[in-house]
Amino acid sequence: xxxxxxAARIERLVNEEKQxxxxxxxDRSDPDALDQDAERLRAVEVELDQxxxxxxxxxxxxxxxxxxxxxxxxxxxxVEGYRQ
Length: 84
What we know:
84 residues, mainly alpha, 3 helices
């Protein structure tokens, strides 16, 4: 996966995240729809974190003179456990 394809995926996920946040406002009266929105939003947030992590790995490997294609997507538990 190239940096460009990861960046494109990030852009699509950010757009979906924005749409889901709008849906949350319109689905307030429907608890089931609101739960589905929240569940999908959480999945999108995790996938965004994974994409950003992969992009950072690729850049770090490139900066170190290594092959950026050696970077691997990390599991949700790993990327969600990072300290900010």
